Amino acid sequence: MKKINVRQVMKRAVELAKTMIGDWVARMALALRQAWKEAKAVVANEIGAIQLGEGEKALKIGKHVVTFEYLSKTYTLDVDVKVQTKKKEYVVQIVGNRLNHTNGNATEINFTHFIPLGKARIENNHIIMADDVRLNVNARILAGDVSMYGHEKAKIIKKGE
Q: E-assigned strands of 41-137?
């Protein structure tokens, strides 16, 4: 992964802070946040990562192996995500297995989501969706959304392909 030049980030933060008014420490704090955000966006673009806008989540198309913990149980998802474009919607199909490490049970997964074209787009082998698109729990884990039912969170332990 490409490294971020901290010296360049500090220089950019000082430039930004000089354009602001108010207490220097407060200006510098705001400027540093902005400079780091800019630097991370540049690095992400250089390594070919996708940029999500505010209120978006992304799901990678293709093979996934994700191990996560939820309600004191450990699971592994080993699935394949496929997307088809229809006239008015994207058809997202997730097929594979979910292994419960606590009791050794394996569950076959095969579910389909229909997402309107206005709520999603395909970019760099990812489908990028608005946050308000409702997904199955397993799809939410794959998309990195670890908040489950408002009170519990899943903890992603390991991601692979």
A: 56-60, 62-70, 73-85, 89-100, 106-116, 120-123, 126-130
